[in-house]
Every structure is written in C-alpha cells, then in structure tokens.
Amino acid sequence: MKNKNSIEVRQSILQKEWFWGYTFLLPAIIGFLIFTLIPVSMSLYYSLTEYDGITKPIFVGLDNYKSLFKDKEFLMTLKNTFIFTIWTVPVGAFLSLICAQLLNSKIRGKKLYRSIIFIPNIVSYVAVAMVWQWLYNEDYGLINTLLGNLGLYQPPWLTSAKWAMPSVIIMTIWKNLGYNMIIFLAGLQGIPNSYYEAADIDGANSFQKFFRITIPLLRNTTLFVLVTSMIGAFQTFDQIYLLTAGGPNRATQVVVYLIYMNAFQYFKQGYASAMSCILFAIIFAATLLQFRLNRDNNS
Amino acid sequence: MVKKVKKSYNNSKTINKVLIHILLILISLAMLMPFFFMISTSLKSTDEVFAIPYKWIPEKVMWENYVYMWENAPWIKYFANTAIITVAVILGQVFVSSMAAYSFSRLEFKGRDAMFFIYLGTMMIPFQVVMIPTFSIIKDLGWVNELKSVIIPAFFSPFATFLLRQFFLEIPKELEEAAKIDGCGYFRIYWEIMMKNSKPALTTIVIFTFMWTWNDFIRPLIFLNNSETWTLALGLAKFQGTYTTQWNQMMAGSLITMIPVLVIFVLGQQYFIQGIVMSGIKG
Amino acid sequence: MKNLLKRFVMFAVIVSLMVSISACNSGNSDTDPDKAEKSVEENKKSDKPVTIQMATSGSAQEMAIREETANKYMEENENVKIEWIDLGNERFQKLLTLISSGEAPDILYINEFVFAFAEKGVLEPLDEYIENDEEFDLSQFYEGLIEPLKWEDKLYGLPQEVSPFVIYYNKDMFDEAGIPYPTDDWTKEEFLEIAKKLTNPEEKIYGYRHPGSDWFDQYLGWMSREGVSFYSEDLKSLALDTPQTLDALQFLNDMVHVEKVSPDPASIQAMGKGFDALFRNQKVAMDSAGLWMLPTYEAEPLDFEWDVVRMPKGSDNQNTKAGVLNWSISKDSENKDAAWDIVKYFVGPVGMKDVAEGSMALPASRDEEANNIIIESKFPENVNAFIESAEDLDLSDQMSSKRNEIFTAIGNEIDAMLLGEQTPEETQEKIVELGNKIMNN
C-alpha cells in the first residue's frame, strides 16, 4: 500500500512541469552558484570595503559609492560609456541587419561575402588596433590621404578629444558588423518563405516586405542582438585599452577601463568593485527596459 | 501585357542586383583591410613595418618571418591545448545552455523569469572585477595550471543560453503539442523538437564559442602558468616584449592561428538554410 | 520511455560528477601549516628534490635569457627544479591575482613595484640572507637601483637588469644640418638649441620625440634632472610644490608646446605601436629609449648612421630613469632558502653574464666580466653612455604604492599642458592638489 503510494507520488512528480524545469536548469544553476554567485558576492562585499587586493579588506560601508558620485572622473567616464553605447548599438544592429538581409537573398557569392564580412571579428583587437591606428593617422593615414585627394576635411581622428570617440565608435561598428549579421542570419532562417511568397502575390515591394514581415518576425532575434550588444558596449575595454588608452585627455576613457586601472594599477579593488556594481545596476536596468519594451510591442 | 510587366520587373531586378554587388564589394574591401594588412606586415622587415608613408607591398618579401615565428614557441603543444579546450567548451556549453534555454523558454514554473534575468546578469559583470575571487575558486578546486580551469567555467554561458532561448521561443507550439500527444516526454521534446529545429542557432553558438575560446586571452593567462598548458593566443603574446614587439612575426602567427576559425565558419555556413522550422511543421 | 530513462541516468551521472569534482577538490585546498613548516626543515637538512616556482614575463627572447640561467643552475643543483609561472604581458594583473589568492610563486618577477609590494607585506626581507652569506656583496649593484627596493630600511628585492634611458640620435641628420655630434656632458639648453635646428615644421620633421605622459619615465626624468624630489622625506606626501618642479614643467612646455621640437603627446599616442617609427623613418632626429632597441637595430641595420648619447644635464644633475627587472621572494614561500639560492645565482656572475649576452639590457651589477661584454660589443659606438648613465639612476618615484595613480593623474595634466590647454603654473597647481589628494586618501 505504502509502496504503491510512493510510486504514484514519484510518477506525479515526473509529470510536473516545474520538476522538469528545475531539472533542465540544474547544470546551469550549479555552475552559476560556483563560478558566478561566489565571486560576485565577494566583489559586492569588496565594494563596501577599502581593499587593495592584498591586505585584509576594511569595511567602510557606502563610502566608496559616496565618493564615486562625487568623482568627476567617474561621472565623465560614465558619460563617455553612454555615448559609446548609444552610437554603437543601434547603428551597429541596423547595419548588421541590412547585411544579413542582403546576404540571405539568392545573391551569387553570398557565402563568400558572409565570410569576408565576418573576418574582422576573428582578428584579434591587437592586430585591429594596429591597423586602425595607421588608418586614422592624421598625417600619413589612409583615410586622411583619401579625404585629402578628394579635397575634403581631414579630421585629426585619434589626436583630438572631439574626434577620438567617433573614431573608436566607427572601428567598433566595423569590427562587430559580421558578428551581429550572423545572429540575424540565423534568425532569418526561421521566417517561412511562404510569408514572402504571399506578400509577392499581394504585390509588396522589398521595403514593405522588410518592414512588414522581416522586422516583426525577427523580434526575438533583434531583442537578443540589442541586449547582448548593449551589455558588450557598456563593458567595452579591449579597443580602448589598445587603441587610445582612454586618451587623448580622457576623451575615450570608459568605465571598464577605469575599473581596470583602479583594480590593477592603483591597488583599489574596493573602489573598482563599487564602480562595477553601479555599472551592473545600469546595464541590468537597461536590459529590463528593453525586455519591457519588447513585450509591450508584442501585445 | 503580363509578359511586358514581368520583363521590366526583371530588368529592375538585374539593376538592383548589380547595385547590391557593388555595395557588397565595397563593404568587403573595407572588411578585408586588416587581413591584407596582416599578410603584408607578416612579410615585412621590421624596418618596413612602420615605413612612412605606409607600404602595402613589402619591398623585400621576408618569408623567413614565418620560420622565426615557428621557432619562437612550441606551437604544436599550444595548438593541442587550444583544440582540447575549444572542443570541450563547445560540447559542454551547448549541452548546459540548451537544457537551460529549453527550461527558460518552454517550461512553466515558479521564478523562471527571475532566474533567467539573474543568469543573464552574469554577463553584465566585467571580468576584471571578479578575476581575483574567480581565481581563488579555481585555486580551491585545485585546477590552477590545468586545462579544466579554462574549460569548465566556460560551460555556463548566459550568452548561449539567451540565444537559444530566443530561438526556442520561435519554434511553433504546435510541434510541441503534437509530440506530447504522441507521448513524448520532456527529454524527447527537448532533443527531437527543440535541438533538431535550432540548427542555425546551434551553429551560431558553435562558431562564436569556437572563435572566443580560440582567441581567449585573459582567462587562460591568469589560470594557466606556462608553456605546458598555454594556448595559441598566449603564444602570440610572446612576441610582445617588455618594451618592444615583433609585429611581423606576431602577424604571421596570428594569420596561421586564424585559419581554423575561418574553416569552422565556412563549414558552419551550410547550416544557414532557409525554412528548417517550417519543414518540420509540414512533415 | 527506456530511451528517456537512459538519458536521465546519463544526465544525473554527469551532474553528480561535476558536484563531486568540485567538492573533493575544495577539501584539499586548505594548506596545513604544520606540514609546510616541516617541509622547510627537511629541505634545509637534505638535498631532497624541491620545486621552486619562479615568475617570469616578457617576449620569447627575454624568456630565453632567463631559461639559460635557470638551466645552468639546475645542472649544478640537480635536486632543484625551477617551474616557470609566466605572467605574460599582463604582468601586474596576474601577479596581483596570484598574490591575492595566496598562490604567489616563490620568486616574484617585479619591475617597479617592489616597494609597493613590500609595504603590503607580501615580500620576504633579504637582509638576513645577505648578512649570512659571506660571498654576497650588495655594493656591486648600482645604488640607484637598490634605493627603491628598500622599505622601512629593509631590502626586499635584488635587481637583475637595468636599461637606462639615453638619447638615440641620427648622425646623418646632424651632418646635414652641420651640427656637431652631442657629447655626454651636454646640457638641456644645448639639447633644445640642437633640437630646434633639426626641426622642420613644414615637412613634419622634428628634432626630438617626447613620448606622451602615459610613459611616466619620460617626464619624470626631466623633473629629476631639475632636482625635483618626488616625495617628502618620510614618503608620506608629495613634494612637487617646488620651483624645480615648475622649471621642469616650463622646460617640457617650451620643448613641446612653444618651440614645437616634438610632436604633441596626442599625435604620439595616436602613432600607437610603432613608437620608434618616427626615428626609423627619419622624421625625428633624436629619440629617448633604453637598450631594448639594440637587438632589432642589430638584426636589421637602420638606413642611416646613428649613435647614442647620455640624457642632457639638467639644472641640477644628469639623473636618468631606467627600465628595471627585480626579483623578490614571497613571504609565503615554503622554500625560502632554496629560493634565495636561486636569486643569488641569477644576480651573480653567471646570471649577469647571460643578461649581457642577451644584449637587451645592462647587467644590474658592476660585474666586470659581464659589463665587458657590453663595452666590447661597441654597438653602438658610444655604448658606454648606458653604463655611465646607470651610475646616475633616480628611481625614487617608485617609493610609493600609490605611484601609478599619482603619476597617471600627473601625466594627464602634463599632456593637457603640452596640448596648450593650461600654463605650467596652472599645471603645477593642479598636480600638487591632485597628487596630495591621492596621497592622503
């Protein structure tokens, strides 16, 4: 009797969706607990301490956060990061989508084009930075030589505070174009041909098809691209570290660069942790907002 | 009448195609630039690397840069280490992420979305700030200077989970319902419906994970100690001295180590085929 | 159903495996202090095999020099194995992480941070080892190198190599302008005059290249030669509110902003990786660097005649900054005696000879045999300038754990000045204010 009951219970558990929900999540949860939760909790704690990375952290409450909101350099750095994100994410996503759309048609050589557009992504930032430093060179660079030949204005790209950020933004969009294009391409595979065929019969042109079919049906993919690009943009480090080192005159200094400097050059792990907590809060809020907007659009 | 319309339609289509090709060729040139640059640099003498004005074609082609590059490090060892790490990470990541993505996208249970956002939050923390605590954990696990220190933590990728979740969401509910009626359990639905219908997304993950793991620099540098366990990306950094860098050899090395990533990309492309999901429905 | 069960079992096995891996490993992580002590005792007594972890960094060529010495040592001491901990090109990041997690290698590779790490209490003082060792002679090292390795009167590191800054100059460009070659006793006024004559703004040719201020050593050198001492006597505050500091700022300003004998720091920064590109391409006549340019210039000779000369005398002295490599022993090392023995070997005659033969830096000691290798190389002609500069080193800027933060902030202000955004007076005011704020924090 008892035995029969337990079998029933077990069977019913096996039929419960929540049980399977957790089961499928189990490996991810274990990994999360070990490799994320512990380090992040420690870092959260460090943000409340004065900690040089070596000697015992001293608890200082919210002091780090208080000084951060008064720290002009940090606030300026936040602003730079916002500017960088606002430009690279939407523009980058839009251009990638166009490329994906072009290369999803029956165009000849599309595989070759795709591979070529993907190449900058494979190349390490060390090499990329070297190329662009030369391209951007005010006196000898290829871009200014071309502009000069055309009789156009030759911007002092990396050498002026005004042009340095646009330079970094252009390079970043260029490098990530192929990456988002691939995600969009994968997304485009899920759109049934029959929709386009139906639209053809209705006499819709390419633009109408693009805006009425492709964009709405790519909603989930687009959300993914926007969210992940935004998270990446807020955490930009490599290209700044290698291309401009935050200069000239801190015009391209972004948050993670400042975090790196504080954590590993200034012996200020605590302060760096506080910065990354603020950065985390900003990214998290922006991500939630994007999900919310996406849901509103759905309904 | 109908014929005429069709003809002009075809004409404008051809013009469109030509325009698209011109556009694509221009884009391609811009994209190939670093590639040309790397090839050119890899064949230059140090003197010419920084010649002003820049030279696209080296005056003296130095094939021996590739020889020096080869002699500079135990590349075969690095290649083996990198290959082991990359393959293991891809397998583990696809396995863990797809299961989590299935759960996050298709199963209803309490706290699901909150857990998803928390998991996604993992991506939002800069590595620089969790590096020291993460290394402490690796040390406590006894994994320092072992390949698994780089492999196992990489299984838990919110990026891959998020990507698959978005794709699983697109798979029509009808497929799942039909499978349930046929008596399929959750594992079969996960495997037969979700996984088999997400090849473009899985391919994307394989390509990206391959690329990232292959090129990953900071994690291997911190967790792995010397040439016994080092990877290609770390080997390339050995062209950088305290004050000077052997750019020509570094570019030669970079080009060689890029090849596998390009191959994976080209191979992966064949899975970008229209209409996989829909063929499932029809069948 | 069977299929499903099979998959589930497989899944469960994998999960439990993962859990058990992490569980059992974390069990052994605690190091047993008793055991550690015991092993130290045992090592002293016998020739039991020991493995010493030694940190290293730099390019494959630099690594080869270290390996050379290590191999000789291991041949002589068969019970010792040196295991490399390569810090790659992110030296500081990895070292800090290792130390922070209690995984510090026995022997640390530290360049400019010995003082800072000593202050944080992670290094072993070496005084006792030196006293107990009759052969060891500390006075063979250049005094300027030893100074920043001391914290509260104890010595925490020993130098392996040093690369003092000198001026590389293009003889052809001097000839063309009809200017006699500079000599080691020249002054900064003479230097500036010469640089002016060699500058041709229309063709974007400059007399000198003053690198951007993110390379601290470059501006710190000019300050030191004016007689600036960076910190107060007790090392607790900055001492930059002096007339000497203003003189140095004024000179930098004259050189870059007023006379424009050097490209401005933003253009230099934008040149990026090709930092000797201007010199190679004869766009600048004089460039300041250490010995690290020599191996490339030897392998691929430049298209013009060149030589080196000491940095010009300032109003106060002819001090020089330098790139350095120091060894320290970790306080947590379980084999300090063995580690000391290795360090001693590296900074002794054998290690110094290997440095000299590597020709990427000077030996950090006055070891005659090693230095003769450099002198006899006659590459370049006035190679002696390096050795003489080593007698006038000033590395005292390293004597604060806040060094990087302070000099990054100061460098930013100096760059702003060189770009014409503020006067030397304003710059000094800001430097003093910023610097003191950081020091007192």
How widely separated are the two ends of chain C?
67 Å
Query: Given the structure, what is the number of helices of chain B?
Result: 15
Corresponding CATH superfamily of the largest domain in chain C: Periplasmic binding protein-like II
The succession of helices and strands of chain B, N to C, reads HHHHHHHHHHHHHHH
Distance linking N and C termini of chain B: 39 Å
CATH topology of the largest domain in chain B: MetI-like fold
CATH architecture of the largest domain in chain C: 3-Layer(aba) Sandwich
How many runs of DSSP E, i.e. beta strands of chain B?
A: 0
Radius of gyration of chain B: 24 Å
Q: What proportion of the residues of chain B form beta strands (DSSP E)? A: under 5%
CATH level-four homologous superfamily name of the largest domain in chain B:
MetI-like
| Portion in helices of chain C | 40-55%
Low-confidence stretches of chain B: 274-283
- Oligomer, anyone? heterotrimer
Shape type of chain C: globular
Offer a concise description of the structure.
The complex is a heterotrimer of chains A (about 300), B (about 280) and C (about 450). Chain A is mostly helical. Chain A is built from 14 helices and two strands, in the order ααββαααααααααααα.
How would you sum up this structure, described in words?
The complex is a heterotrimer of chains A (299), B (283) and C (441). With 299 residues, chain A is mostly helical. Helix content of chain A is 76%, strand content 1%. Chain A has two domains: 1-46, no CATH class; 63-298, Orthogonal Bundle (MetI-like fold). In chain A, helix 6 (125-136) crosses helix 12 (238-244) and helix 11 runs antiparallel to helix 14 (269-298). The model of chain A has no long low-confidence stretch (mean pLDDT 89). By secondary structure, chain B is an all-alpha fold. Chain B has two domains: 2-66, no CATH class; 73-282, Orthogonal Bundle (MetI-like fold). Chain B is built from 15 helices and no strands. The longest helix of chain B is centred in the first third of the chain and has 41 residues, at 2-42. Chain C has a four-stranded antiparallel β-sheet. Chain C has a four-stranded mixed β-sheet with strand order 8-9-7-10. Chain C has a two-stranded parallel sheet with strand order 1-2. In chain C, strand 4 (150-151) and strand 5 form a beta hairpin. Helices cover 49% and strands 13% of the residues of chain C. Chain C contains 20 helices and twelve strands. Chain C has two domains: 50-162 and 323-377, Periplasmic binding protein-like II (D-Maltodextrin-Binding Protein, domain 2, 3-Layer(aba) Sandwich); 166-319 and 402-440, Periplasmic binding protein-like II (D-Maltodextrin-Binding Protein, domain 2, 3-Layer(aba) Sandwich), CATH 3.40.190. Classes of the chains: A mainly alpha (299), B mainly alpha (283), C alpha+beta (441). Chains in contact: A-B, A-C, B-C. Chains A and B meet through helix 2, helix 5, helix 6, helix 8 and helix 11 of A and helix 1, helix 4, helix 5, helix 6 and helix 8 of B.
